[in-house]
Amino acid sequence: MKPGAAPPSVVFASAELAPLAATGGLGDVSRALPRALAGALGGRVSVFLPLYQAVRRRGVELEHAATVDVPGHGPGFRVWRAAGVLDPAALYLVEHDPFFDRPGLYGERGGDYDDNLERFAFFSRAVLEAILALDLPADVVHANDWHTALVPAHLRWFFAGHPRLRAAATVFTIHNLAFQGRFAAERLPSTGLPPAAFHMDGIEYYGRINLMKAGIAYSRAITTVSPRYAAEICTPELGEGLDGLLRARAADLRGILNGIDTEAWNPSIDRHLPARYAAGALGGKRICKHGLVAELGLGISLDTPLVGMVTRLTLQKGCDLVLGAAAELLRQGVGLAVLGSGDPWLEEGFRNLAGAHPGRVAVRIGYDESLSHRIEAGADLFLMPSRYEPCGLNQMYSLRYGTVPVVRATGGLDDTVRDADEDPRRGNGFKFREPRGDELAAALRRAVRAYHEPARWERLQQTGMAEDFSWSLSARRYAEIYDRLREDRRGVPS
Ligand code: ADP
Predict the structure, then answer these.
(1) Ligand 1 centre distance from Cα of residue 476 (Å)
(2) Looking at 189-296, which runs of residues are DSSP E strands?
(3) DSSP character string of 381-434
(4) Does ligand 1 have an atom closer than 6 angstroms to the CB of 437?
């Protein structure tokens, strides 16, 4: 920010907000980034979220803030302000019970709701109507992933000449390019956009609607959640069909690493652990390992390197690579502790692995936040062999917990982990390049060798524990983008 300039006011639209309504990283970012922006930078930040059933169930205190009309849906939708949830940022919830008073955010029992296009098109337009009704300052309107991609699109089509919104700059963040919001062309009226938007420079993609594409096409700046992923999505391998468009917008695309919640993930105050520890006093970590070995019924000694995994069990996360290379991994004399849920065939694969190696491999299928902390603290090594990883959180938790990460060099994993053999002075983990079991096994072998050299191991742990993954750092980078846009109100590309 220029000295003396007022901090930018930001309106942030998201389909998720942790812990009220979240399925992944988007929810974490939507909680942490606005608070960090509003707190450290002093800007006015307003966050919009649908009023989901999950939010109602939490008993959040709601105060009626405005009533808006949403074209195509009718008059009289209420917008509520939630007290004390996101301070110092303001949280607004958009009510439309037929759309949002449902058990799921996007679907139920593994299937998506059929009307997700209508639901999120409604929400996106309602955000813009609410900005006007609430008279919110909006130097920047920041949308996230395909659910809110119609915010910049509607801004461009319907408010480009509006005295209050004309100057608003748009930022669109891609949290995971794999989910794009693709729908049949016949449903264009549901987007609220005119037929002219169904065009290769707009919302059309190979004859269908693609909301993610619209978000990219109609936003002034595009960000994604790590610098490496920003480069990768410009390639055919990880561009998910949008690499051409992203290459064309490369000058406006920037990768900003997500921060982590440094209070929830702090081994010196973590209440999920049997003992607490810090970089200068690692004794408690051994107690955590002892506790974890007992909790999981492992039969390994405390001198055996213990490898942890906490993950969705999917191909994206490379879980099949672990199963394929399991014999080779176990030959290296490690124990393995896995917590995860996901694809049934992978769940079964891990269950079978544990069954075949009792005492050496422990597998817990399910979602268990508390156990995830104990694995982060009790393991010596943490495995993340992802095929792609926009940012990844667990490698950052691991570094903070003195648990050395072994990762595939992709996305945010590549940005946060430095290989200890390639860079002996600054290394904090181990990396492999190709998504293959033999490469994974070779990286683990190097890590196990380091584990058996105590002085080197402790140096590695200390390097990792000294990293700064706080949100204030990331928020500053977003603020730089907001500032640049404010100074350069060229509007959206035409
Ligand atoms: P993604 O959002 O792609 O699943 P991230 O690494 O960005 O991957 O974030 C995943 C988050 O979910 C991490 O905080 C991780 O610890 C947590 N997590 C994933 N699976 C489980 C599980 N089975 N139990 C507890 N926490 C889990």
Answers:
(1) 25
(2) 204-205, 208-210, 221-224, 253-255
(3) EEEE--S--SS-SHHHHHHHTT-EEEEES-HHHHHH--BTTTSTTT--BEEE-S
(4) no
Contact status, residue 371 vs residue 282, Cβ threshold 8 Å? no
Lowest pLDDT segment from 112-126, 361-375, 389-403, 479-493: 479-493
Residues 440-483: tens digit of each pLDDT = 999 999 999 999 999 999 999 999 999 999 999 999 999 999 99
Question: What are φ and ψ of residue 160, in 5° steps?
Answer: -60, -25
Identify whether 88 is preceded by a cis peptide bond (ω within 30 of 0): yes
Distance from C-alpha of 206 to C-alpha of 484, rounded to nearest angstrom? 34
Which ligand 1 atom is at minimum distance from the Cα of 366? 23
Closest by CA position to 49, among listed 133, 153, 119 = 119
Check pocket membership of 392 for ligand 1, CB cut-off 6 A: yes
CA distance 331 to 118: 53
Q: What is the pLDDT of residue 3?
A: 59
CB 311 less than 6 A from any atom of ligand 1? yes
Q: 139 and 486 in contact (C-beta within 8 Å)?
A: yes
pLDDT over 50 at 55, yes or no: yes
Question: Residues with Cβ < 8 Å from 199, sequence gap 6 or more?
Answer: none
pLDDT of residue 250: 98
Domains defined for the chain, CATH in brackets: 10-259+472-488 (3.40.50.2000), 283-468 (3.40.50.2000)
Ligand 1 mutation target, pool 339, 372, 415, most atoms within 8 A of CB: 372
CB distance 369 to ligand 1 below 6 Å:
yes
Reduced to 3 states, what is the DSSP secondary structure of residue 255? strand
Cα separation, 117 vs 146, in Å, equals 10
